[in-house]
Amino acid sequence: MSNPHDTAPSPRATIAAIPAYVAGKPPTPRPGQQVFKLSSNENPYPPLPGVVEAAEAAVARMNRYPDMGNTALYAALSDKLGVAPEKLAAGTGSVAVLYHLLQAFCEPGDEVVYAWRSFEAYPIAVSANGATSVRVPVTATGRHDLAAMAAAVTDRTRVVVVCTPNNPTGTAVSDAELRDFVAQVPPQVLVVVDEAYREFVRDEDPVDALALAAEHANVAVMRTFAKAYGLAGFRVGYLVAHPDVAAAVRACALPFGVSSVAQAAAVASLEAEEALLERVDALVAERTRVVDALARQGFEVPEAQGNFVWLPLGDRSLEFAAAAEQAGISVRPFAGDGVRVSIGEPEGNDVLLEVTAAWRSGVPVPE
Ligand SMILES: *Cc1c(COP(=O)(O)O)cnc(C)c1O
After folding, report:
1. Which of 69, 87, 169, 260 is paired with 96 by a 20 to 30 Å CA distance?
2. Are 315 and 338 in contact (CB under 8 A)?
3. What is the percentage of the chain residues whose pLDDT exceeds 70?
4. Do 199 and 284 fall into the same domain?
5. CA nearest ligand 1 atom 11, residue
6. H or E element: which one contains 78?
7. Which atom of ligand 1 is least distant from the CA of 41?
8. For residue 344, is it within any domain?
9. Which pLDDT belongs to residue 362?
10. Which residues are annotated with the PTM N6-(pyridoxal phosphate)lysine (predicted)?
11. Could you report the per-residue pLDDT of 75-107, keeping only the tens digit for each?
């Protein structure tokens, strides 16, 4: 019997449950108004010195497939991080690395524990791989409740994700807290430490996830070139883990996934460490300026350790985002919960502080 064209075959049941990823929007340009995109935690700086040249040289060879083994990238990372190349697994962004890891480790219905609210890609990646999300609410100050997360681990748990600093609430766990947590997690459960914003951390006891991963075969570290390194558009991230874990993740990766341009740009970015650190310091200084100003305006902002701040505005989050949009900045609201605002150019951050000041005083925001 033929299949009528209006009845398509059904995907796996778990696919219908995938929540939509809501990407940060660019601001709508208005005549005479400068606009700033503060909605996706991107780096406002242009590529690091030498990166455009390296990428252009790779573009000229686009008739060839990329190096499937990411050899130069793994060599550069291995050098920089002091880890053996067999402990590395690269992907098209650390989100892709997470997909591969869940595919490698989760049978249908296996549980993945993570904090909530946290990175919106987690529930999507978990559902897409047929696993089950177990969300553990963050504390009133936006911190991971690690005790509750440890208690949420069951016989079905295969993976626990610790996002530090946490997107979108901004808080970081300390090294002591993470060590204590890992000690409570059974050895067959993988603890994935998502360090997308690690360069921006200025905690007195910062997580040393690589050391922890060196000591525990069930600890894996995810990092990305998208944020501090400013390569969001090129899609490259990586995992550092026990060689067997890294091999399983590499086995699930799309063949030739990371483009030759992305590989070349990532290697060149690693070589520009001095400029990277300067830019990160400047963004951290701007973060401090914004957080201090928000506190003076009377906002209760959780500790901000990433390149963004979290305004817990609850039911008024969408209203705030609309007011910000009017003033020329796009922010990322989470309805009923809060608003995440990236630290951008100083001029953009100034606009944010004008919007928040007007918000506090109840005066309509100037356009
Ligand atoms: C931005 C971000 C990433 C990085 O994603 P890419 O796929 O590398 O762009 C990973 N984790 C968190 C928490 C993030 O906010």
Report:
1. 169
2. no
3. 98
4. no
5. 196
6. helix 71-81
7. 1
8. yes
9. 85
10. 227
11. 999 999 999 999 999 999 999 999 999 999 999
Q: Clarify whether residues 216 and 353 are in a common domain.
A: no
Each residue of 290-302: pLDDT tens digit? Answer: 999 999 999 999 9
Residue indicated by tokens 């990646």: 125
- Residue 174 sits in which domain range? 50-271
Q: Which residues contact 250 (CB under 8 A, 6 or more apart)?
A: 89, 100
Number of separate domains in the chain: 2
- 267 and 286 part of one domain: no
Residues 222 and 333 in one domain: no
Among candidate residues 276, 356, 274, 253, the one with its CA nearest the CA of residue 310: 356
Among protein residues, the one whose CA lies closest to atom 10 of ligand 1: 196
Residue with CA nearest ligand 1 atom 15: 167
- Cα-Cα end-to-end distance for the chain: 62
d(CA 218, CA 196) in angstroms, rounded, equals: 19
The predicted pLDDT at position 363 comes to 67
Summarised one tens digit per residue, pLDDT across range 44-76 is: 999 999 999 999 999 999 999 999 999 999 999
Indicate which residue's Cα is closest to atom 6 of ligand 1: 93
Indicate if the pLDDT at residue 268 is higher than 70: yes
Q: Whose CA is nearest to atom 12 of ligand 1?
A: 196
Ligand 1 binding pocket includes 95 (Cβ within 6 Å): yes
Q: Which of 276, 263, 208, 199 is nearest to 235 (CA)?
A: 263
Take atom 3 of ligand 1 and give the residue whose Cα is closest: 196
Ligand 1 and 167: CB distance under 6 A: yes
Same domain, yes or no, for 112 and 244? Answer: yes
CA 294 to ligand 1 center in whole angstroms: 26
Separation of CA 40 from chain center:
10
Within this chain, do residues 126 and 171 fall inside the same structural domain, yes or no?
A: yes
- Does 43 have pLDDT greater than 70? yes
d(CA 290, ligand 1 centre) in Å: 23
